[in-house]
Amino acid sequence: MDIMYFAWVRERIGLPKETVETQAATVSDLVAELVAREDRYAAAFADITALRVALDQELSDFDAPLAGVREVAFFPPMTGG
Amino acid sequence: MDIMYFAWVRERIGLPKETVETQAATVSDLVAELVAREDRYAAAFADITALRVALDQELSDFDAPLAGVREVAFFPPMTGG
Amino acid sequence: MIVRVQENLFDAGAELNSFAKNQPTVGAIVTFTGLVRDVAGGLQGMEIEHYPGMTAKAIEAIAADAQNRWSLADVLVIHRYGTLHATDPIMMVATASKHRADAFAAADFLMDYLKSRAPFWKKETTGDGASWVAAKDDDEEALNRWS
Amino acid sequence: MIVRVQENLFDAGAELNSFAKNQPTVGAIVTFTGLVRDVAGGLQGMEIEHYPGMTAKAIEAIAADAQNRWSLADVLVIHRYGTLHATDPIMMVATASKHRADAFAAADFLMDYLKSRAPFWKKETTGDGASWVAAKDDDEEALNRWS
């Protein structure tokens, strides 16, 4: 599964994209796996309410199941316009 | 007192502007004087609810007094924009 | 505030660019451009009559009202009179603000008031002849949004 | 519908004119142009990051939603990414309709959704350093207007 990071999430984690092997059932489970890995992930995911998630390029939420998902992206609230 | 007419009011009366001597106390009194004059005025002022009036270039209404007014304008509802 | 009442054609894009260029500390520019709509059967022309002594004063009063109601860095209003042709720009409003909500609300307000309170009257000529455009009840009701 | 996500500068006035030229039967064009605002102390630059795989799709979905909600002849959205400078245009929305109320509402709606639902993130560099622009609670609340 590809995981992408944008804006300050990317900066805290230190990379824009990585591929992980995971059995996580939901986005929250995946976040828990990442946080357990290294401090930089813990720092990026410290306040989940400050983050957004997209599954296969569609906005989703942290309760969503990951079955069949190929690309997960984490980022702060958008500031376009 | 100068009286100006615009759009179809001007067309029905057949002139854009005229100067009248009047002792009319209000706009309505002035309209009554004009209507009494000739059919073309009666045609133009047949339905007063379809008309607007400006006194000295400010929108006003038919009850307004004419004391001190130098220019009265009659026209249909505006269609700018 | 810039108010122009003119017979000549204007270039809406050039007006937007020169308006924006004068607003270095502003993030939001909203414009409305009104075009002569071509009608079924073909529009041969549009004649816009106005009340020269009153027009600019009335528009300036409306624009000043917008500036009192919202936080605006600048306001532009251009309105033409005389003979116009299908697809010509009739008029344009531009508002500049730090806040997009203010720029939108002010432009919307300006349009509602210019439509029903600035002394312009449109006459359209088509294959069926010439006729004065009637004011719409909607336009009068739209003003109630702002009171 | 025209959606462009690009690094290059664009000319908002030229975009307005070419958009309007394609709308012969439409009376009302509304545009919103977002500019890089110069800040106190001087903005040295703005960096806009985006999510290439998602950006155009997200904007197209928002524009399609606007077309379902209002009677629109056409919609244009341009949004830049990369390095921008003070007073540069960041993005632009244009709507064309027979009815000015539809053109205004749709442009306002598009801006609210692009602001909070299109995957762009702004980072500003000033004399004090670089920092990510924070989303405003206002922006999220603005979306409630349309539900």
TrEMBL record, chains A, B:
Alphabetized CDD domains for the sequence: Ubl_MoaD
Pfam families according to UniProt: ThiS
Highest taxon, organism lineage: Bacteria
InterPro entries per UniProt: Beta-grasp_dom_sf (IPR012675), Mopterin_synth/thiamin_S_b (IPR016155), ThiS/MoaD-like (IPR003749)
Protein name as catalogued: Molybdopterin synthase sulfur carrier subunit
Species in which this protein is naturally found: Yoonia ponticola
